[in-house]
Specification:
The chain is mostly beta strands. It has one domain. Helices cover 0% and strands 31% of the residues. It is built from no helices and 5 strands. The chain has a 3-stranded antiparallel beta sheet, with no helix packed on it. A hairpin with a 2-residue loop joins strand 4 and strand 5. It is globular.
Length: 96
């Protein structure tokens, strides 16, 4: 998986696992595990990019994509939580 657009420094390690690999499926869980060499800047964002033309994360149909932070990422302050937005094939985590 290329990480060409990463601008805050190198990625130390990354892996993505799932139980189903076919595109346009519902009720599929993807586990993203990654670590960075440098800290993420305050109020930064992380884009999780799925293959173009195969994933439509921004559709109006249900179920909508949802995310869960299991460990590691924390909000920049206690007043605003980390939230996500979608744009066709990109899930973005904001306010880190």
């Amino acid at each position: 998986m290329p990480f060409d657009e990463f601008k805050s420094g190198p990625i130390k390690s990354a892996s993505i696992t799932t139980q189903k690999f076919e595109a346009m499926r519902i009720n599929v869980r993807y586990d993203w595990l990654f670590s960075f060499v440098d800290p993420i800047p305050k109020y930064g964002k992380i884009d999780l990019v799925f293959p173009k033309n195969f994933y439509d994360l921004d559709r109006t149909a249900e179920p909508k994509p949802k995310f869960e932070i299991v460990f590691g990422l924390e909000p920049a302050d206690n007043t605003s939580p980390i939230y996500s937005t979608t744009g066709v094939n990109v899930l973005t985590l904001h306010h880190l």
